[in-house]
Amino acid sequence: MDIWKFFSVTHGYHVVCNPMSTAKLDSLIELLKLNPGSAVLDIACGKGEMLARLAERYEVSGVGVDISPYCVAATEQKLQERVPVAQIEILNMDGADHSPDQLFDLAMCIGASWVYQGHRGTLSALKAMTKPGGLILVGEPFWLKEPGDAYLAAENHTRDMFGTHYENVLVGEDEGLFPLYTMASNQDDWDRYETLQWYAAERYARDNPDDPDVPEILARVAHGRKNYLQWGRDTLGWAMYLFRKPSHAD
Fold first, then answer.
1. E strands of the chain, at which residues?
2. Quick one: 3-243 is in which CATH superfamily?
3. Residue 64 pairs with which residues in a beta bridge?
4. What is the pLDDT, as a whole number, of residue 212?
5. Helix 187-207 with 214-227: angle, nearest 10 deg
6. Any idea what DSSP says for residue 230?
7. Contact 169, 143 (CB under 8 A)
8. What confidence score (pLDDT) does residue 248 get?
9. pLDDT digits (tens, 9 = 90+) for 216-231
10. What is the pLDDT of residue 250?
């Protein structure tokens, strides 16, 4: 089935497509202290909630990029409803193929480091698209403890796919960035993110019994549910990391 349809179905009730509460997002947004009209880039912008909140709070301009046509449609509708005058362009494409013709005050890739082959690649790519002195914001998993072989096999992961929380910050420092702030998901954040997918899939199956993709949707969600409850809930964390790119004066 279309993988972007699957994510659209399973994230149908999520305000943000990651394990972070909106209250925490708002507290982070307050720390950004952007100037009106600041240029923002959001790679893999999902349903556009972060862009909408930034436009509401700071009247930002910018670009959102997402490969999912479902996310692009949702983002465009959200921006039109909430911040219709915002100068934000939404592009339906692979973020890795986007080569902007400007530098940004804030560049983000929240929970989609696969676009750039991992955390380090993401920070490196965003750094190249950020103004000197600008901000870089990423969302990235981290190991709470050493993952077991059974969990890695079930998820088709490798140990080096993610680092620890400490290692994720060190990667930014190694890229020449200043670490400003981190915000980790707690258990409630994770449970809401994961279990709301179960809810969304079951509701979709009941409302669309003739959709031939329903059996696969339910099977994939069941697989994820087992892995999360048996291993992931105690093994994998998730955090947002805010860095600053050095200015010419630094």
1. 39-43, 61-66, 88-92, 104-110, 130-143, 178-184, 236-244
2. Vaccinia Virus protein VP39 (3.40.50.150)
3. 42, 90
4. 97
5. 160
6. I
7. no
8. 78
9. 999 999 999 999 999 9
10. 75
**Cα dihedral sign, 45-47-49-54:** positive
CB 20 within 8 A of CB 238: yes
Q: Over the Cα atoms of the chain, what is R_g?
A: 18
149 phi, psi to nearest 5 deg: -60, -35
CA–CA–CA angle 70, 142, 99 (5° rounding): 45
Q: What is the pLDDT of residues 169-195, one digit of tens each?
A: 999 999 999 999 999 999 999 999 999
CA distance 26 to 54: 9
Question: Residues with Cβ < 8 Å from 78, sequence gap 6 or more?
Answer: 47, 48, 49, 52
153-156, Cβ contacts within 8 angstroms, sequence gap of 24 or more = 154/223, 154/226, 154/227, 154/231, 155/227, 155/232
User: What is the residue type of 227?
Assistant: N
Closest alpha carbon to 11 in 190, 201, 184, 189: 201
User: Domain segments of the chain: what residues?
Assistant: 3-243
What digits encode the pLDDT tens for the residues 137-164? 999 999 999 999 999 999 999 999 999 9
Alpha helices by DSSP H, listed for 33-148, are 49-58, 69-82, 119-128
How many other C-beta atoms can be found within 10 angstroms of the C-beta atom of residue 159? 11
Which residue type sits at 160? D
- Indicate the SS3 state at residue 94: coil
